[in-house]
Amino acid sequence: MEKKRILTGDRPTGPLHLGHYVGTLKARLELQEQGNEVFILVADYHTLTRGISAEKTKEIKINTRELLLDYLAVGLDPKKITIYRQSDVPAVAELALLFGMLVTVPRLSRVPTLKEVMRDEKIENPSFGLLGYPVLQSADIALVKGELVPVGKDQSSHLEVAREIIHRFNSEFGEVFPEPEALIKGDVLPGTDGKAKMSKSLGNAIMLSDDEKTVKEKVMGMYTDPTRVHSTDPGHVEGNPVFAYLDAFGQDQTKVSEFKDRYQKGTVGDVELKEYLASVLNEFLAPIRTRRQEFSKAADLDKILEEGKNKVLPIAAETLKQARRAIGIE
Ligand code: TRP
C-alpha cells in the first residue's frame, strides 16, 4: 500500500474495551507498522458537545490519561506515530468556523448519530455545538490533510459530512484539502449480554484494563444460546457472543473449530466453553496489562502530548494559512 496520511481519534470518555480493539485499534496498529504517517487525536472538545461544565473538563483530564495508557498498552507507539490533544491545536476551531459556512443546519440535523444522541439523552433542542460535531470532526481531518480515516461503521455519516464540506471548499476555492476516505475495516464485537454492540454505557464490555479475575467473572456470566437448556442440547454458534470472541481472539483456531463442533452436537457444557474463552482472553490481555503497568509508572504522558502538539502545530498553521489565502482573507 502506498503510504498515506492517516487521522483518527477518540473522545476521552473512559477506558477502551475489546470492541475498540477489534473495531479500530487493531487496524491502527497495522497502519502504524506499515509505516504510514498516522495521527491520533484525543478529541476532548468533542466530549463537550453534549454539555459543558467544569466537572466534565475535570473528568476529561482523567479519561485522557486512561486513553493514552490504553493506546500505549496495545502497542501504539509515539515514536512511530503522532498522538495529540485536540484542544492543544486551537487552529481547529477556526477551520471549523469556516467549515460551518459550507453546510446547512438541516443537513446536520439528519446525521443519524446526532439523532440518536438526541433521542437517547432526550435533547429536544440541540446546541449549536452538538449539531456542529461532524463539522468539528471534518476540521480535525482537514487540518492535518488526512487522506484516510480509520473509524467504526457508526462514524461513516460523519465522514460523509466531511467529504461534502471539503468538496464544497475545494470546488469554490481550489484544491486545498484531500477528500478524506473512511477506512472501515474492523468488525463489530457483540456485548457480553448478546446485544449487537459492546459498549461501556450498556455495561456489557470487557475493558482492556480489566484484571484476570474480572475478565473471568464477566465471561462466566456471558449470554450464550438461550435455546439451549442442557449441555447435551445441540447449541447455536451463530449469534453466540462466546464464539464471536473466540473467532476474534482465539490463537488456536483449530481448537475453536473443535469447540464449535462439540457445541453444535451438544457434547460440551457452557462452563468448559467459557473457561476456555476466559483463558483465551486473559492470554490476549496479559501483555497489554503488563505494558499498561509499565507505562503508568514510567511513561511521561504529558511529554507524549507535548511532542504531539509540537508536531501538529506547524502543520495546522500551514493548512490554515492556505485555507485563509484560498478564501481571500489573508
Ligand atoms: N467522533 C469520533 C468518535 O466518537 C472521534 C473523532 C473526533 C474522530 N474527531 C475525529 C474520529 C476525526 C476520526 C477523525 O469515535
What does this structure look like?
This is Tryptophan--tRNA ligase. It is an enzyme of class 6 (ligase). One of its GO terms (biological process) is tryptophanyl-tRNA aminoacylation. The chain is mainly α and 330 residues long. The chain folds into 2 domains: 5-190 and 300-327, Rossmann fold (3-Layer(aba) Sandwich); 212-292, Tyrosyl-Transfer RNA Synthetase, CATH 1.10.240. The chain is built from 14 helices and 5 strands. The chain has helices at 18-33, 44-47, 54-74, 91-99, 105-109, 112-120, 128-131, 133-143, 156-173, 212-220, 241-249, 253-265, 270-298, 301-327; strands spanning 5-10, 37-42, 82-85, 148-150, 181-183. It is globular, with a radius of gyration of 22 Å. The protein starts with a strand and ends with a helix. The structure holds tryptophan. Tryptophan binds at residues 7-11, 41, 43, 46, 137, 140-141, 149, 151, 155. Tryptophan (TRP) binds at residues 7-11, 41, 43, 46, 137, 140-141, 149, 151, 155.
Write a compact overview of the structure shown.
With 330 residues, the chain is mainly α.
